Amino acid sequence: MPTASTVMAMDVFVLPRVFGLRRPMDRVAHWKHTARANWPGVVAVVAGTVVGTATGGLIPGTSGFQHTYIGFPALQAWLTGAVIYFIGVALVHKRANATVLLGFPRFEPEPAEAPDDSHEVASDPVPELA
After folding, report:
1. Which of 4, 6, 56, 66 is 20 to 30 A from 12 (CA-CA)?
2. Are 93 and 87 a contacting pair, CB within 8 Å?
3. For residues 90 and 103, what is the distance between their CA atoms, to the nearest angstrom?
4. Strand runs (DSSP E) across the chain, as ranges?
5. Nearest-CA neighbor of 15 among 100, 101, 115, 85?
């Protein structure tokens, strides 16, 4: 779904600059840490898909079914998804539960690791091969 890719691109490139929301991307979340959904993203993907379907002549029973396009369906779907997602994030970004509504993973804090001396590099010179 191209609209989903547009929403993901917005998430990575636009939201941090405009709203200061940075989705943790330094590690992969285990299933128990994932959120139910990115609700503004779900709404945006559905809206973009509906627009792409309608403008692409893909609705059976309509006069233009399979042979009429209205504009550039893919571009209109992408723009619809991007605009709806931006508006959705604008509506929720200041709420206390914004990260939950936006589907951010809920990572547990990592325990502080004790220093481990077993990974030190040996100070002996490397023997030469004859």
Report:
1. 56
2. no
3. 15
4. none
5. 85
